[in-house]
Amino acid sequence: MAQVWQHRLSPGQRARAEHVRLDVPAQSKEHVNTAAPLTESEILAIRGDFPILATEVNGQPLVYLDSGATSQKPLSVLDAERKFSLRRNSAVHRGAHTLAAEATEEFEDARETVARFVGARPDEIVWTSNATEGINLLAYAFSNASTAGPAYADLALKPGDEILVTELEHHANLIPWQQLAQRTGATLRYIPVDDDGVLLPADDFITARTRIVAFSHVSNVLGIINPVAQIVAAAHAVGALVVLDACQSAPHLPLDLRALDVDFAVFSGHKMLGPTGIGALYGRRALLNALPPFLTGGSMITTVTMEAAEFLPAPQRFEAGTQRVSQAIALASAVDYLGAIGMDRVAAHGTLMSRRLIDGLSAIAGVRVLGASGERVGLASFDVPGIHSHDMGQFLDDRGIAVRVGHHCAQPLHRRLGLISSTRASASIYTTEAEIDFFLQGVADARTFFGVTS
C-alpha cells in the first residue's frame, strides 16, 4: 500500500496516515456502470421540479446546456435554504439557545449527508465557498507549513520538490499550484495531452521528487473521464499526495473518494443542483490535521492568549468565521435529490447524452469535436472554423439555447489543441434527447447562416 510522504512524516504522523489508509477498500478501481438511463417519463417528471426550465428566452423555450458551468436547482433545494432562513436562522457552534442548537445540528447533519455522498467521514469534509477556494486553501496550507513551526515541517515544500498537474486543468487547479511553487521554490511540472486531449501516461512524469499530483477527474472542456486509479497508484508509489478536482464528476458519477484512494478532493455545490457560495474540500483526517490552517479567527481555536493560539482539529480548523449555513443545508438537499434518482442512473443518462452530442456534432460537416472518443460525461466542446465561438453562442441564444463559449478557464488546453476558444454544451439530469437534437440543428443552421458550408 502506498505511503503518504512516508520519508517526510514523523513516526506519529506516519502511523495516523496508515491507520486511515487501512480503511480504504481493497478494490479501488473506477466504478463500472451497468444501470439503465433515465426514461423519457422520468426526465419529464424531473423537469417538473425545476421551474426555470419552463421559462422562455428570446421568445423561445429555454434549452439549458450550460450545466457544466452552473446547474439549475430543484424546488426542494430552493425550499431547503428558504426553510432554514424562515425557521432556524442562527449562528452555528456559538450559541446556547435553542435556535442556535437546532441550526448547528442541521448544519452538521448536512456535512454528514454530503460526506456520505462522496464516501467520506464527516470530519473529512471542510466547507468552502467553492472548489477554487478549496484548492487555494490547500495550496496556502502547504505554503504555511514551511513557516508555521516544527509541528508542520514534515509537509513543507522546498526547492527541488515537484508539484505535478496536467495540461488540461481548469485555471483553478493550475494557478494556485503555480503560486505555491513560486512561494516555496518547488518546481511545477505537468502531464501533457496528445492531439486528442488524452493524458500521456502519468508514470512518465511522476518522479522521486514529486510531492503533490493535482488533476481533474473529468475535464471541464472535453468531458473525458481521466484514469484516476493509474494516476493515484503512480503518485502513491513515490509517496506523493493526490489532489482530485471532482467538480465535473460529483454531479454526474458515483463518487467514493476513499475507494479512489485520493488524499484530497474538491467539488462545488452550484454544479450539482446546489446553491452558489458552497463547496467542499475532502481530506484524509490525518492529513487535514497535519496541515496548518489557512484562514484564522473565530470558531477554529481552542485557546487564545495575547501571544498565541491553539487550533481545533479538522474540519473546524479550516472553517474560520461565520459559515455558509443555509447553503450547506441546501447542498445536502441537492445531494439527497441526486441520491433519490441514483448516481448509477445519473451516470447512465450522462453517457447517453454524451453519445448523442458527440455523434450528432461529428455528423455535421465542418465541425471539430474536441477530445477523443471514449468514456465521458454529458459534455462536449467543439469548434467550427470560420465561426467564432461567441458568434455561435449568440446564434444559439437567439433560439433559446444556452451554451458556454470561450476558453472555459482552460487556456493551456485550448492552446495545445490549436484554438483560442470553443463552444461547450453540457447536459444534466433534466436534459432531454429532443433538446440535444434541437441544439444540433442549431449548430448545423449556424454554418449556413455564417456562410461556412463549404
Task: Summarize the helices and strands and which ones pair or pack.
Layout: H1 11-21, H2 40-47, E1 56-57, E2 60-61, E3 63-64, H3 75-87, H4 98-117, E4 125-128, H5 131-144, E5 162-166, H6 175-184, E6 187-191, E7 210-216, H7 228-237, E8 241-245, H8 257-260, E9 264-268, E10 279-283, H9 285-290, E11 301-304, E12 309-311, H10 325-341, H11 343-362, E13 368-369, E14 379-383, H12 389-397, E15 401-402, E16 404-406, H13 411-416, E17 422-426, H14 433-449
Parallel strand pairs: 3-15, 5-6, 5-7, 7-8, 8-9
Antiparallel strand pairs: 1-2, 4-10, 9-10, 11-12, 13-14, 14-17, 16-17
Helix pairs in contact: 3-10, 4-10, 5-6, 11-14
Can you tag this structure with a few keywords?
454 residues; alpha/beta; Aspartate Aminotransferase, domain 2; Aspartate Aminotransferase, domain 1; 2 domains; seven-stranded mixed sheet; four-stranded antiparallel sheet; globular; disordered N terminus
